[in-house]
Design brief:
22 strands; 9-stranded mixed beta sheet; 659 residues; Thrombin, subunit H; 11-stranded antiparallel beta sheet; 16% strand; 25 helices
Length: 659
């Protein structure tokens, strides 16, 4: 997961005989994009055409499924340019510049106690990003746990339209049983287009299409935005994840997933409303299970302890280094102990309300955001700084439908858990629920008028006076819990985040002493480039070949969900070559956030599209497992066949230059 400004071209040359030069790297960076809400993508034509995964654009697909239409079920294709439909809440970012601001940020926090240093760091970051051109998006990114700070400048695009999406049944063929496995038989793709006003955006930097697809053993590059890894964490941090964080998340999300799955099964309408959540939570649960198993593996902690001990011993060889960095590991262990005592309770007192409800997200944003906007940018909570406001407003003002019935169901579950974890006697529970049952309070919140984006905009523009005067039940609830939520936030900022950042930064600086920049930094949902090759692996004593083909797709179908093919593929079977590669695996290092990343060859041509990893990949948060862990991609040969033969998307085929 190498950054574009520190890519090891000579290592690639030594392993594969190809050394990417600066022009090649710049082209790949500019042809790659980030979907602001958690995925990656790429420009694949000079006319703003963007390729990403179906599951990355699913919220847009669902939001556009109105008036009796269901584009998840039936797929979507715009036969002409004016048939392309605007996504109600989607932002695409193109990284145009990286600047080193390490000295400026570290100078602002130098010599201060942890809590003051944390506040000073945030204020300085707000000043740096606030000085950027207002038409751009600027993020200061901490790399190597704060050992480096880089300013990433993006060109943001918010006029994004849906062009083509296959049916959910083929995009996620095999469903949860096949998720994080290989062999796979998915066509997980969506095509979007960015507009400049009423016309497609001109994008001279784009990836050309290779209809032949990938070849066994071929050098592959994956350009994307891996979300987060914890590979540089301490043993104490891993123990916290194992003993506190993951057990709580798994228990809660599994319970919620079962609840909404039952809701989705009640009717076709409920299924449409809950599909995005069911897919997302099942995916997350499976990922968490894999992480949990990795942490519980008997060999994991001894290996990490040995690695950490060697690192600390190397630092201790120099007394000056030991004096600077030696206490950081023990300090982090103390912080994790404090976090373990409070984390479950605090999750219900601060952010939990908004995780499961769009209405309460809107209400929290209006209550907290309007109050924060009354302050200078460098004194606000970071998510409300000037640099991040436009992205926040994309979601706040989205015209995507909100379903009151689904909101009521989710909130009834949440308020039940809220009371269960905090107990009936907790003052906050009594304040929130009073004499009402969770179901009664959920029904009240579901009557909120915040389903109307015009009302949300009016309240936002009206500022604190308008929000404080509102009698909307969602806003009334969030006003009620805000004082304690802010108190929890401040405690966590000062007593958990601040010392963790300060000591993690020391460890990041210590790693430069021992390793230099031979290690790439943990993933931060910023642009990275990995290199690898198309290669199978061994599993349970058997060889897993690197490719599946279209013939295998038809052999796997049962006619029953989740192995039921859509009608378009049934009709096209006779016209498709069963030998056409469908999915393949590579040794590229990826993680969540890489979904939608292009797989390119040494000529920077599209040969595939990342959409998943295999089971061995599930431990990638903690380290790169190169023996059997694999990235899973759709082959461009299958995408070509689908566009030409299954969907007859002639204008897209022509735009991609496919013969």
């Amino acid at each position: 997961m190498w950054t574009f400004d520190d890519f090891p071209s000579q290592k690639v040359a030594g392993a594969y005989g190809f050394s990417p030069d600066q022009a090649w790297l710049d082209h790949v960076r500019l042809a790659s994009v980030r979907l602001a809400f958690g995925c990656s993508g790429s420009f694949i034509s000079p006319n703003g055409l963007v390729m990403t995964n179906h599951h990355c654009a699913q919220a847009c697909i669902t939001a556009l499924s109105t008036g009796g239409k269901d584009y998840n079920r039936d797929g979507f294709y715009a036969p002409a340019l004016n048939d392309e439909k605007k996504c109600p809440a989607l932002e695409v970012n193109q990284l145009i510049k990286i600047d080193d601001v390490t000295e400026r940020v570290q100078k602002a926090e130098r010599g201060l106690p942890d809590a003051q240093a944390n506040a000073a760091r945030k204020a300085e970051i707000a000043r740096i990003t606030g000085a950027c051109d207002k038409t751009l998006r600027c993020d200061v990114v901490a790399l190597y746990s704060g050992g480096q700070y880089k300013l990433y400048t993006y060109r943001p695009f918010r006029n994004v339209h849906l062009v083509w999406a296959p049916e959910f049944a083929i995009a996620f063929f095999g469903g949860d049983p096949d998720n994080f496995t290989f062999p796979r038989y998915d066509l997980d793709i969506t095509l979007l287009r960015i507009y400049d006003g009423t016309k497609p955006l001109s994008t001279p930097e784009y990836f050309k299409w290779n209809p032949a697809g990938a070849a066994g053993g071929e050098l592959t590059f994956v350009s994307g935005n891996p979300g987060r890894t914890d590979r540089l964490d301490t043993v104490a941090q891993f123990a916290y994840m194992r003993d506190v964080q993951l057990p709580f998340q798994l228990h809660n999300l599994s319970d919620f997933d079962g609840y909404i799955t039952r809701y989705a099964a009640e009717s076709d309408e409920h299924h449409k409303q809950a599909l995005d959540d069911v897919f997302g939570y099942e995916n997350t649960i499976k990922l968490f299970i894999g992480q949990d198993q990795a942490l519980l593996n008997p060999s994991f902690f001894p290996a990490k302890q040995k690695q950490e001990a060697a690192f600390r011993s190397a630092i201790a060889l120099d007394p000056s280094n030991e004096a600077k960095y030696g206490s950081a590991w023990d300090n982090i262990a103390k912080v994790e102990q404090l976090a373990a005592e409070r984390s479950v309770s605090d999750s219900f007192r601060d952010g939990g309300f908004t995780q499961f409800s769009q209405l309460l997200f809107f209400a929290r944003t209006l209550v907290r955001g309007t109050a924060e906007l009354a302050k200078p940018s460098d004194q606000r909570l970071p998510e409300y700084s000037d640099a991040r406001l436009r992205t926040l407003e994309v979601r706040l003002f989205s015209e995507a439908p909100v379903y009151p019935e689904y909101e009521r169901a989710k909130l009834a579950w949440y308020f039940t858990k809220f009371r269960q974890y905090l107990t009936v006697d907790d003052p906050l529970v009594q304040q929130v629920l009073g004499k009402e049952s969770p179901e009664e309070l959920a029904a009240l919140i579901a009557t909120s008028k915040l389903t109307d984006p015009a009302l949300r905009r009016a309240l936002w523009n009206g500022g604190p006076a308008a929000v404080n005067a509102s009698s909307d039940p969602a806003i009334v609830l969030m006003r009620k819990v805000e004082p304690e939520a802010l108190a929890v936030r401040k405690f966590e900022d000062d007593n958990v985040e601040a010392p963790l950042r300060a000591n993690s930064e020391l460890i990041g600086l210590a790693s430069f002493v021992v390793h230099g920049t031979q290690l790439y930094p943990d993933a931060t949902f910023t642009a990275r480039l990995s290199y690898g090759s198309v290669k199978g692996y061994e599993q349970n004593g058997a060889t897993v070949e690197p490719f599946t083909n279209i013939g295998g797709l038809y052999e796997r179908t049962t006619g029953r969900d989740p192995f039921k093919l859509p009608t378009s593929w049934v009709v096209a079977q006779a016209a498709l070559d069963p030998r056409t590669p469908l999915d393949f695996v590579t040794t590229n290092d990826i993680i969540g956030g890489n979904s939608g990343s292009p797989v390119i060859d040494r000529d920077a041509r599209i040969i595939g599209l990342i959409f998943d990893g295999n089971l061995q990949f599930l431990s990638a948060d903690f380290g790169f497992e190169g023996l059997a862990g694999r990235a899973v991609a759709v082959d461009s040969a299958a995408l070509t066949a689908a566009l030409k033969t299954v969907y007859h998307a002639d204008r897209i085929v022509e735009e991609l230059g496919i013969q």
